[in-house]
Write a structure and sequence with these properties.
This protein is mainly alpha-helical. It is 71% helix and 0% strand.
Length: 163
């Protein structure tokens, strides 16, 4: 996720450099390595650009916003999160839970399988805290329960109306 944000920020800065040819690479580098302000509006007032660069307030705001977002994202990011494996069944339970909401009548069977897989994945995550995928397992569990409930009520209503 951090790499996607950095890629988008880089494209934004490249666009700003092409759009404003007077923006010098040294000034941009000095701005991006400056400390991030706690308030974005304060960052617009204080700038580390040299006086010879002719940058309007919109471009300064864009550079400061990108700088602030990169610094903020770095402080929140978990560097080891990309390397932790998902618990087996977490992704499958999420997919089956979503499908149980969407696919008519087969959603009952898919939802039951999704509940079983989500329960197993949550047990694995509790047993081994290094595993990730808790959010996917919970999403799969909730979607599967809702899907099973919807189709169970629907099947009961069809059976009652048929009798």
């Amino acid at each position: 996720m951090y790499s996607k944000f950095l890629f988008i920020a880089t494209l934004f800065v490249l666009f700003a450099t092409v759009w404003c040819p007077t923006l010098q690479a040294a000034n941009l580098n000095a701005t991006l390595t400056a400390s991030a302000p706690t308030d974005i509006s304060a960052g617009v007032r204080e700038t580390s650009l040299s006086p010879e660069a002719k940058i309007n307030w919109k471009q300064r705001l864009a550079i400061k916003l990108v700088t602030y977002k990169i610094k903020k994202h770095k402080s929140v990011a978990n560097p080891g999160a990309a390397n932790t494996p998902n618990a087996k069944g977490a992704l499958a339970s999420m997919v089956l839970g979503i499908l149980s909401l969407v696919i008519p009548y087969a959603g009952l069977v898919l939802g039951i399988i999704g509940i079983v897989l989500a329960a197993k994945a949550l047990k694995r995550i509790e047993a081994n805290p290094e595993l990730s995928g808790r959010g996917m397992a919970i999403t799969g569990l909730v979607c599967s329960i809702v899907g099973v409930a919807i189709y169970a009520v629907l099947l009961i209503a069809i059976l009652i109306s048929a009798v």
